Amino acid sequence: MKSESSRAHIEILIVEDSLTQAAHLKSVLEEHDFQVVSASNGREALEILREHKPTLVITDIAMPAMDGYELCRRIRADDRLAELPVILLTALSDPEDVFKGLECGADNFITKPYEQNYLLGRIHYLLANVHLRQGEKAQSSMEIFLAGRKHVITSDRAQILNLLLSTYEAAVQRNEELGKARDDLAKLNEQLEAKVSERTASLAAENAQRTRAEAEVRKLNEDLELRVRQRTAELEAANKELETFNYSVAHDLRSPLRHIKGFAELLSEDYGPEIGPKLQQYLGKIHLSADRMGLLIDDLLRLSRIGRQDLRCQMTDLNLLVTEIKQELELENNGREIEWKVGPLPQIECDPVLIKQVFVNLLSNAVKYSRPRPHAIIEVGTIKENGSQIFFVRDNGVGFDLKYATRLFGVFQRLHGPEEFEGTGAGLAIVHRILGRHHGRIWAEAAVEKGATFYFTLGSELPGNNSSDQAA
């Protein structure tokens, strides 16, 4: 092996098109006191070789313009350069790479990626034995067949030996790497199996816990459903008792109320001229109170009947229903200027008697609370929201403060005094009850002196209301 001081006189030509790999190889060689010259391709290398002869050439095989095999052939064809040692950098991915190297006259292979010590060892070996090549003449050409292809080799014995040894070393190195990788894989498999076993045990414990939890949840759900059914039955029974009580009370109030009103009328007819104005006023108040009480009893009975009677659903044309109500209201309010805006309404499956009562109450309220307006505007229509159909009744009347909206649908709750607008306050409660029977809901938007809009829906649970409704 050459001494460290003599390496400064050893010049190595690196032929590598990758700037990164060329810089790395140059750094390694210069670190060990070799002189280095670089070329980026085969043609540039030949230009350098025409100027002066280096000690050794290390060339990549895969390069543009001229590959490493062709560069090696050109070197061997030049008498001045024929004995120049050439090392090929290759991945040795194909056995034919060896024969191609022999055909072109290369001295050695270095596989990529390479280890620094291996690289330096091959360089030292070639430099130490270069005299063997100089004293040996080329052998006769030799034909070798591999995979159906013929290769003609004219390399000398030293070249063949070097190439075969480098190939063998590369194979040994790969086998060592594969053995280490196999050992690492076996360790990883053992670790993986241990983790799988651990995770399997953990999952089994989790599944057992989840199974217990699901059983507890099912038991709780069953208990809850039973309690809900019991509570629902109790509430239904209580509601029926309450409705029966309300009906009985309202029905029983009719008879004494008729007597009060009748006796008041008799007093007025028989003793009218004899009693003074003050008593006449008292009798008038008795008449008005009796009439109001009669209306309250009628509404109370109506509420009771809504809760007790069965729904009789059928396909109903809401256009005809609203038109009929509108005509009745126009006759009752003859002389008022009312503008009706009725949009197309669908046919739906519902109880027509009850849904007519909904529109009667809402439209009657719209007419009543728009009375102060010289030009009343009442709108009826539908809108679509999130795939649901919403009905609305809107007016430009006196409106109300939304902070009192929670009182709207209570029984006998009023936001205006009887001196302003007549009524018992049961109309919206009846609407709320009817829509509840139809699995629907109702809500309102309003502002004082800016009118009101009542929105309501009819539930999709009713047959026929889940399909696309067609406007009549």
Task: Describe the model.
It is a single chain. It contains eleven helices and 14 strands. With 472 residues, it is of the alpha/beta class. Among the domains are: 151 residues, Response regulator (Rossmann fold, 3-Layer(aba) Sandwich); 146 residues, Heat Shock Protein 90. The strands form four sheets. Strands 2-1-3-4-5 form a five-stranded parallel sheet, sandwiched between helices. A five-stranded mixed sheet has the order 9-11-12-14-13. Strands 6-7 form a two-stranded antiparallel ribbon. β4, α4 and β5 form a beta-alpha-beta unit. α3 runs parallel beside α4 and α8 runs parallel beside α11. The termini are far apart.
Percentage of β-strand residues? 15-25%
Largest sheet: 5 strands, parallel
Query: What is the CATH C-level name of the domain at 5-155?
Result: Alpha Beta
The CATH superfamily of the domain at 5-155 appears as Response regulator
Helix content: 40-55%
Gyration radius from CA atoms, angstroms = 53 Å
Distance between the termini: 107 Å
Count the E strands: 14
Give me the strand/helix succession.
EHEHEHEHEHHEEHHEHEEHEEHEE
**What is the multimeric organization of the chains shown?**
single chain
Tally the helices. Answer: 11
Which topology of the domain at 5-155 does CATH recognise? Rossmann fold
Unreliable segments (pLDDT under 50, ≥5 consecutive)?
461-472
Strand order of the largest sheet: 2-1-3-4-5
Using the 3D structure, state the CATH architecture of the domain at 5-155: 3-Layer(aba) Sandwich
Mean pLDDT: 79
What is the 3D shape?
Answer: elongated
Structural class: alpha/beta
